[in-house]
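Dear support,

I submitted the protein below through the web form. The confirmation email said the job was done, but the results page showed an empty box. After a refresh the structure appeared. I'm attaching both so you can tell me whether what I see now is the final result or a partial one.
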Amino acid sequence: MKKILITLFFALFAFLSQAQEKPKYDEALAKKLGADNYGMKMYVLVILKTGSNTTATKAQTDSLFKGHMTNIDRLAKENKLVVAGPLAKNDKQYRGIFILNTKSLEEAKTWLATDPAVSAKLLDADIFNWYGSAALPEYLPYHDKVQKTNF
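What the results page shows now:
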């Protein structure tokens, strides 16, 4: 019985040692992605909310939001935008989020100015510096593999 317990102890120790192994650090990838020692970097988080323009017609709104979606696609292809998506209805009138691949609030404002829905004040933007995983942009190539239909 003692031998069995000792064997189980060593087997459990070996298992836990392997389970706690750190992933292998890839210096070239970390450098390419701009990662710090923690594998993180600064981005700009944008919270889009209902804008002040309440006079646009349905046709204008539809056209501006089509341009909004085209702009999202362009920014993603240029590696400027790494996350975008709508929010569920809420009492704060938040409409969606962007995570922009810059640490500069000024550069983020320049990129936001290219969005027709933001320029027309259908959407307003609150922007913040945000610290997240430098690997975040790496998921983007997989999106096309899971998307059946474009907006």
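Response: this is the final, complete result; the empty box was a page-load delay. Residues 58-77 form the longest helix (20 residues).
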